[in-house]
């Protein structure tokens, strides 16, 4: 008789439990048994040829000639995944970088030369490595996420000595040294308020995108690095020349400029120093293997100095983590986050929440027309010296229409700067035009309108200079006063005009009245010439 408590499913569970105990009592795990069977089959089965690797068995076909049937693949679901022996985590970030080295080593006299140069300057190496500790963890994280060699984390040592404010003579900027046009092609925004070529997060993203693309193009990390320095077109042409001449196609085989020839050897030299600093008498500062900074969102425009104060860090440290912000104010619509040292992020958020004063003392203003700096200062209520300093306007320059300037924020204009202005604002300048006073004598049929057209000025302005009406007809020989640019050349109507009495010598040179149309034609022509 079957007991009342007996249930078929319960019996099945008991049998399964007993089988599991029996398996645990064996000396080898199921995976070990499978390996033993495979090893035995390999010992008794046919040996692979020495001419190359044997092809792997197709799934489910077993080992041919072994007498063993098909081997069922292991299921790697979360329950059945075999245990993985974890490696000891790196003691510091340098060790983590060493573990990720994956590029082939370069060994030549140029590498030896650069090693000697660097090892002879331990103080310089120490300054560079101390500067790098703010940024290295983030770069290594990104490299590992993309499965890229960690040697690339050392590239800013070569490019900029890990100085995000570095600018080369060719106008390359930032830690990764992006040229303006290359930066734009990788979505690094450059406007009146920020330069993302200097931004820690954005420039790193763009640099790794670029290097990945170059590696995919050339299939070789040394060639990819050469292209990063020299340009992908230059490397492609050098490879084509070598191929046509039957020469080698490696980095060392190419005919390159001196800077590019030393580029990979420099990186290899730094790699060797990082791999074994004691051998070269180099001391590396300890860099903990955890984030140095974290991103903190901001929702209102805020002065840079105030942000640093609320975070309780120095202005120098704040700018070191946020080097793309070129102005004294952060526009939240264009820069919705700041980077702060890990321990100061919560401090900033707490202090910001309790702060009662005005956050921003600057705002953006778009010039409605071309004007002098003095006029812009008058319209915005900003001292002219401050307007020049904050916007980088040199002497003897006009502000062109549509320029976006940073001006002092008034009580009446306390709204935050909109996204369209924060993202696209630019400052465009034009040279001031120095005018000279000249007197000509009218010919038969000359009028205010005809002379204004001939000399490229507004009729109303010419009438104002001569205290006459805009419809006035001049008598032949009548003296007419003009204010002309000192470098102006006659327009076509002037050149085609018949010979006439030479104008009187310019006297009493003075600025023209503040009428925008007075020299608009000459200004446009001069702007076109400067662009050409």
Describe this protein with a few key phrases.
532 residues, peptidoglycan lytic transglycosylase activity, two-stranded antiparallel ribbon, mainly alpha, Membrane-bound lytic murein transglycosylase D, disordered N terminus, single chain, LysM, 42% helix, Lysozyme, 4 domains
Report the count of strand segments: 11
How would a crystallographer describe the biggest sheet? 3 strands, antiparallel
Shape: flat
Overall structural class, as computed from helix and strand content, comes to mainly alpha
Name the strands of the widest sheet in spatial order.
Answer: 6-7-9
Strand content: 5-15%
Considering DSSP H and I runs of 4 or more, what fraction of the residues is helical?
Answer: 40-55%
Provide the CATH topology of the largest domain.
Lysozyme
Number of domains: 4
CATH architecture of the largest domain: Orthogonal Bundle
**Distance separating the two termini:** 106 Å
| Number of helical segments with 4 or more residues | 22
> What is the level 1 CATH name of the largest domain?
Mainly Alpha
Gyration radius over CA: 37 Å
Q: For the residues shown, what is the average pLDDT? A: 81
Unreliable segments (pLDDT under 50, ≥5 consecutive)? Answer: 1-13, 19-86, 488-532
Domain LysM: 438-482
Family: Belongs to the transglycosylase Slt family.
GO molecular function: peptidoglycan lytic transglycosylase activity
Biased composition (Low complexity): 495-506
């Amino acid at each position: 008789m079957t007991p009342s408590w007996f249930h078929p499913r319960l019996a099945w569970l008991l049998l399964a439990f007993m089988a599991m105990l029996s398996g645990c009592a064996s000396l080898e795990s199921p995976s070990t048994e499978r390996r033993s069977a495979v090893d035995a089959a390999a010992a008794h089965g046919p040996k692979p040829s020495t001419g190359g690797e044997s092809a792997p068995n197709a799934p489910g076909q077993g080992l041919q000639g072994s007498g063993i049937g098909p081997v069922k693949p292991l299921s790697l679901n979360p329950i059945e995944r075999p245990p993985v022996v974890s490696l000891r985590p790196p003691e510091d970030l340098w060790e983590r970088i060493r573990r990720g080295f994956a590029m082939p080593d370069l060994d030549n006299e140029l590498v030896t030369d650069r090693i000697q140069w660097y090892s002879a300057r331990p103080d310089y190496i120490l300054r560079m490595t101390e500067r790098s500790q703010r940024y290295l963890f983030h770069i290594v994280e990104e490299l590992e996420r993309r499965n890229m060699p960690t040697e690339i984390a050392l590239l800013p040592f070569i490019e900029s000595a890990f100085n995000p404010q570095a600018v080369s003579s060719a106008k390359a900027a930032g830690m990764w040294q992006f040229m303006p046009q290359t930066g734009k092609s990788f979505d690094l925004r450059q406007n009146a308020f920020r330069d993302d070529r200097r931004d820690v997060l954005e420039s790193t993203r763009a640099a790794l995108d670029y290097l990945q693309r170059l590696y995919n193009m050339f299939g070789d990390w040394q060639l990819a690095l050469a292209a990063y320095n020299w340009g992908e077109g230059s490397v492609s042409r050098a490879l084509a020349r070598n191929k046509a001449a039957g020469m080698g196609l490696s980095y060392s085989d190419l005919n390159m400029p001196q800077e590019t020839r030393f580029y990979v050897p420099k990186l290899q030299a730094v790699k060797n120093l990082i791999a074994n600093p004691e051998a070269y008498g180099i001391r590396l500062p300890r860099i903990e293997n955890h984030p140095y900074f974290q991103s903190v969102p901001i929702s209102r425009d805020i002065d840079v100095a105030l942000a640093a104060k609320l975070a309780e860090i120095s202005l120098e440290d704040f700018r070191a983590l946020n080097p793309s912000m070129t102005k004294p104010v952060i526009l939240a619509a264009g820069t919705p986050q700041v980077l702060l040292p890990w321990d100061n992020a919560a401090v900033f958020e707490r202090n910001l929440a309790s702060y009662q004063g005005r956050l921003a003392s600057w705002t953006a203003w778009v010039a409605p027309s071309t004007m002098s700096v003095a006029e812009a200062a008058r319209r915005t209520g900003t001292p002219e010296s401050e307007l020049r300093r904050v916007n980088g306007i040199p002497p003897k320059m006009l502000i062109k229409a549509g320029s976006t300037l940073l001006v002092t924020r008034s009580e009446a204009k306390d709204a935050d700067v909109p996204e369209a202005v924060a993202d696209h604002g630019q400052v465009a300048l034009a040279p001031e035009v120095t005018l000279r006073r000249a007197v000509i004598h009218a010919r038969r049929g000359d009028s205010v309108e005809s002379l204004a057209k001939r000399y490229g000025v507004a009729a109303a302005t010419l009438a104002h200079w001569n205290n006459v009406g805009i419809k006035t007809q001049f008598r032949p020989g009548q003296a007419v006063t003009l204010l002309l640019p000192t470098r102006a050349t006659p327009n076509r109507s002037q050149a085609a005009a018949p010979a006439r009495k030479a104008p009187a010598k310019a006297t009493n040179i003075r600025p023209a009245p503040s009428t925008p149309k007075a020299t608009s034609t000459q200004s446009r022509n001069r702007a076109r010439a400067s662009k050409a």
